[in-house]
Write a structure and sequence with these properties.
two-stranded antiparallel sheet; 9 helices; globular
Length: 239
């Protein structure tokens, strides 16, 4: 029995469970629990990838299973969460934007499946669906905790931005290379920790509220903004 395959598939199943639970909570309008369920799926998906890469005999079944689960946990679940969260105020635009988001997440995963893995050794082409789903969930967590105002059009714009980035040709560091960069460069690690700390401190200074969700959202935001620049810097070859 290949214990690596078993462990990886178990973690993938837990990621699926997180997406399923998120959908149920969304339909019951428990947005905070639904958002945390997606973030738990992000964690399980990351652990799944780490275990799978240590497997001396990787399973093609596991790869296909992971992609199918990602469609549900980071495509369908965030779309349903976002729609129930915002539809009363932006019915048409919420429907359109979240359908575009769902389509882009499916296209992103399909493109990943047919791309030679040698090309993705250090980076992804397009924003990973894991990051986009986690970013939407973290945004809703902050909005729910910070304000009692109805959802704003900013959420619709965020959904469309993430959708475009998922199917773009922008390069994003993969988790293994992020770990390598942070372990190799103490300055890079300190910069990430400083950015997260300043985000939390700035939010607390403005609002007087401490939210751990700010740190989670800051991590997604730092990756979303700075990862493409890091790819260019690390792959730059002077003439």
């Amino acid at each position: 029995m290949n214990y690596y395959n078993f462990a990886a598939n178990l973690l993938t199943g837990l990621s699926l469970f997180g997406g399923f639970v998120s959908i149920i909570f969304s339909l019951e309008s428990h947005f905070t629990f639904a958002s945390w369920a997606i973030i738990c799926s992000v964690i399980f998906d990351g652990l799944d990838g780490q275990v799978a890469r240590k497997n001396p005999a990787p399973s093609s079944f596991g790869e296909e299973l992971d992609s199918l689960v990602d469609v549900i946990s980071f495509g369908v679940a965030p779309s349903i969460l976002g729609y129930v969260f915002i539809y009363q105020h932006f019915h048409f635009w919420a429907t359109l934007a979240l359908f575009v988001y769902l389509c882009c997440s499916v296209f992103r995963l399909a493109k990943y499946n047919i791309t030679a893995k040698e090309e993705l050794k250090n980076y992804f082409l397009g924003l990973p669906t894991t990051v986009s789903g986690g970013a939407l969930a973290a945004f809703i967590l902050i909005y729910r905790r910070y304000t009692q105002l109805p959802p704003s059009g900013i959420f619709v714009l965020l959904v469309l931005l993430l959708a475009v980035l998922m199917v773009s040709k922008v390069k994003y560091l993969n988790l293994d290379y992020v770990k390598e960069v942070l372990s190799r460069s103490r300055m890079a690690l300190l910069a990430v920790l400083a950015a997260v700390g300043l985000s939390i401190a700035g939010f607390y200074w403005i609002t007087g509220v401490f939210l751990p969700e700010i740190g989670i959202f800051a991590i997604f935001l730092i990756y979303l903004i700075f990862s493409p620049f890091m790819v260019k810097l690390l792959t730059f070859k002077p003439r």
